[in-house]
Protein: Basic amino acid ABC transporter substrate-binding protein
Amino acid sequence: MKKKALSFAAVAAAGLLTLSACGSGSAEPEGPTVEAGKLIHCMNAPYPPFEVAEGDGFAGFDIDLGEKLAEQMGLEYEALNISFESLESGIALDSNQCDIIIAGMAITEERASKMDFTEKYLNDSLAILTKAGAGITSEADLAGHAVGAQQGTTGEDLATDNGATVTQFEDAGLMIQAVSTGQVEAAIANVSIVADAVTSNEGLELAASLDTGEVVGAAVRKGNTELLTEWDTMMTALRESGEYDALVDEWFGEVADAARVTPEA
Structure:
């Protein structure tokens, strides 16, 4: 994977659980970004292929999009790795820790009540990950089984709704490891994550793809229309140049066609 150099501040923040305001404070930013001259992109690594820690930086589909947005706006780029709970709750944006969340995060009504989403940039329904031959082939099979899910995700909701005994994980890497070691019998995550896990871990399989219709979007603070417009301009340019398709192919491999969002959509 491509190595991305980041500032010391971004690397030092990796894995930090930030449930209270920090950094730039809670005063309303004067422009589309918290800090003049900088775009701060919040995400949660590891969450391959969206974002993964690599050496002294990060790589992934979302990292590429964040860098391209900063380049278009003529801003310095910084990736900030914090807990997914801080992202999906809207706290990271409301406390001005960052300007935009690009984190493989599904658009839901509850999340949209706390932040403003861009148009979808990826299709990414849920899937079930198991060891080969585990005997779980549908969501109906989850009842009574130990199932892992990343906390605060739609995967956790689906596992709970289907009667599973759910173990929460702070990141996707720990969740996948738990399936490999037998700590849990299955995990529910987006199909892009499951496909990457199967490719990278011998003995794991994509047990079932679930037609949940999930779509992924980036998010900004409520009312930050200027940054939303910048995102739309960037995505239009990436589509017209073919760069969007190339990035989807690069990072999503065999599920690229299912993940791709067409201009018509």
Observations:
- The chain is about 35% helix and 20% strand.
- The chain has two domains: 8-122+216-259, 125-209.
- Residues 1-25 have pLDDT under 50 and may be disordered.
